Amino acid sequence: MLMRFDPFRDLDRLTKQLWGGAAIAMPMDAYRSGDEVVATFDLPGVDPESIELTVDGNVLTVAAERRFDPGEGVEVLVAERPHGRSTRQLHLGDSLDTEQVEARYDDGVLTVRVPVAAHAKARRVAISTGGRQGEITAGAAA
Question: Which of 13, 88, 98, 133 is the most exposed place for a label (fewest CB within 10 A)?
Fold first, then answer.
């Protein structure tokens, strides 16, 4: 499915804080819905043209940038919103079909859908017993 543990995530956040590279936060929810895994990323204020979504092997990477350019002659009084480039990686299991990834960006939310691979779906297997034939469900993990 989806690997939940990322040993480098906290280290990456700490490094960015220490060296002043405060980038935009990329909170995420992920869940399975039927025969697909859905991940939603909050990216408010991000230009859709700056979003990059790549799949390399079983790693899905989302990168986005929020820009802040007040222009010349503008005095910035408060600048608390994080700006800059942010990246988030998801490690996908072998049971997902990384060739069929779909993504949509609406109202500041990026929704990524990854279908479960056909070989990982539960299927019915016919079993013959003597002169009779019945069906059972194979125990395929998904």
Answer: 133
